[in-house]
Write a structure and sequence with these properties.
Layout lengths: L5 H12 L6 H7 L7 H13 L3 E6 L2 E6 L3 H14 L4 H11 L2 H11 L1
Amino acid sequence: MPSLGELERAVMDVLWAAEGALTAREVQDALATRELATTTVLTVLGRLERKNLVSRTRDGRAHHYRPVASREDHVAELMRDALNGAPDRGAVLARFFGSIPPDERDALRDLLG
């Protein structure tokens, strides 16, 4: 799973929060406090598309972008990648379990049955 830079993460946050596909201009407007040029937003969207994190469809002259997977799917994939890189997965899982708040431990126990 490719890692995300700070601006890529901000763009993905906008796309994940959207109810549908967005144009580059709509992404730019959502990030208005950053004062980004449209070309910058298009460059970031292109990178995200090459990383297979967003898909692009054409609608007239505009392209619309949407995430390929949900934020939760993305984070789960990052967690799997991290576990796959650990020589002792059990130790990593134990450390992770011990590091999360009790209510999240309870939720994890419930999920595991």
